[in-house]
Amino acid sequence: MSRQSKIVKTSIIEIGVNLILVAFKASIGILTNSIAITLDAINNLTDALSSIITIIGTKLAGKAPDKNHPYGYGRIEYFSSIIVSAIVLWAGITALMESWPKIFTPDITNYTTISLIIIAVAVVVKFALGTYVKRVGEKINSQALVASGSDSYFDAILSLSTLVAAIISIFFHISLEGILGVIISIAIIKSSIDMIKETLNHMIGARIDSDLSNKIKSSICEVPGVYGAYDLSLHNYGPEDMIGSVHIEVDDTLTALDIHTLTRTIQGKIYSEFSIALTIGIYAKNDKYEDMRKELSEIVSSYEEILEIHGFLVLEEQNLVMFDIIVDFDADRQKVKEEILEKIKAKYPKFNYCIVDDYDISD
Ligand SMILES: [Zn+2]
Predict the structure, then answer these.
(1) Residues 219, 253 within the same domain
(2) Longest C-alpha distance within the chain, in Å?
C-alpha cells in the first residue's frame, strides 16, 4: 500500500471511530440532559474534521508534477499538518478555559453510572485510536497523522482525569477536576506548539538529520574511486521528496568518461537506497603536495571552530592552492579564514591561495 493510501485509510478509521463516539455521546448527553457529555461529543466532531483535513492535504500533495510545479505538490502536507496542529492547540486552549474556573468554583456534579460508563468507554477507545494513529504517522513520516493521533491520546487522558476526579469526588467529596484539567490542558497546548514548530522547521529548511547525512555520505564513499563526500545539501519538496547535491573527491587522472560513469553509478545507488536525486560536483585530488596538505591540517587542527577542510588541490602551472574550509556558524568566519591564509602563506610563500569558506550545511 502506498504512503498516501495508508494516510487516507488511517484517517477514515479515525473519522469512523469519532463519528460513532459522537452519535453515542450526543444521544446520551441529550437523553440525560448533560451539557458536559454533549460538549464532549462536539469535541469528537472536531477530531473527525482534522482527519478530513489530513485526507484533503494528502490528496492535494499527491498530485503529479506538472509544468508549473515541476517539484510536485508535496509541500502542501506541511499546511495540513499546521492546520491539524492548530486545531489541537485550539482544543487545548478551550480545555484550559473550561478547567481554570473549576479550580475555584467546582461543579456540583451528580455523576450517574451511565455517564461514568460513557467516559470509561471513551477513554479506552480514544487511547487505542490515538496509539494506532500516532504509530502509523511516525512510521510513514506523516506529521498530520502524528498530530491527530496525539490529539486522540490527549482526549483519552483528559477523559481519564474526569473519571478519576469523578470517583474521588464520589468517595471523598473533594473536586480535583479543575486542577487536573488545567495540568492536562497545558500539556496539550505545549505539545501542539511543538508540533507546529517542527512543521515550520521543515518549511523554513532545517538542517538534515545527522543520521541521514552520515548514511548518504558513507554510501557514496563505498563506491570505488571516491576518496570523500562533502558539502551534502538536500532540499525537501514534501516529507517524501528530496533533491540535492554533493561534492566528491576523485583522482585528477580520471577522464570525463570515467567521471560520467562514476557519477551515474553514485546517483543510481543513492536514488535506490534513499529515493534522493543528487547532483554531483567534483574535486580533483593528487598526492604530489601531500606535505602541504598535512601542514595545512596541522594548522587547522588548532582551530576548534574549523569543522572540516576539503577539496585541497595545487595547480602547479598557476602557482595556485585551492581548498574549502567549513567554519562554525557562530565563529568569526572571515577572521578565521584570514588567519589560516596568513599561516599557510608564511610556510609556502610562492603560492597564491583560493580559499572557499563553505557553510556548515550538513554533518
Ligand atoms: Zn566544499
Answers:
(1) yes
(2) 94
The contacts of residue 288 (CB under 8 Å, 6+ apart) are 314, 316
**Beta strand 306-315 pairing with 320-327:** antiparallel
**C-alpha 140 – ligand 1 centre gap (Å):** 33
Q: If you measure from the C-alpha of residue 324 to the centroid of ligand 1, how many angstroms do you get, rounded to a whole number?
A: 5
Alpha carbon of 277 to ligand 1 centroid (Å)? 19
Residue whose C-alpha cell is 485510536: 129
Round to whole Å and give the CA distance between 210 and 201.
Answer: 15
CA gap 348, 314 in Å, rounded: 12
Q: Cα(213) to centroid of ligand 1, in Å?
A: 15
Residues with CB under 5 Å of ion ligand 1 are 231, 324, 358
Model confidence pLDDT, tens digit, residues 282-326: 999 988 888 899 989 999 888 889 999 999 999 988 999 999 999
Let me know whether 216 and 185 are in one domain: no
How far, CA to CA in Å, does 329 sit from each of 81, 141, 224? 30, 29, 33
How far is residue 146's CA from residue 54's CA, in Å, rounded to a whole number? 11
Say how many Å lie between the CA of residue 167 and the centre of ligand 1. Answer: 65
Domain limits at 324? 210-358
Q: Are residues 42 and 154 in the same domain?
A: yes
Question: Domains in the chain: how many in total?
Answer: 2
pTM: 0.75
Q: Which residues have C-beta within 8 Å of that of residue 169, sequence separation ≥ 6?
A: 109, 111, 175, 176, 177
The 8-class DSSP code of residue 205 comes to: -
Domain end: 189, 204, 219, which one? Answer: 204
**Are 105 and 128 in a shared domain?**
yes
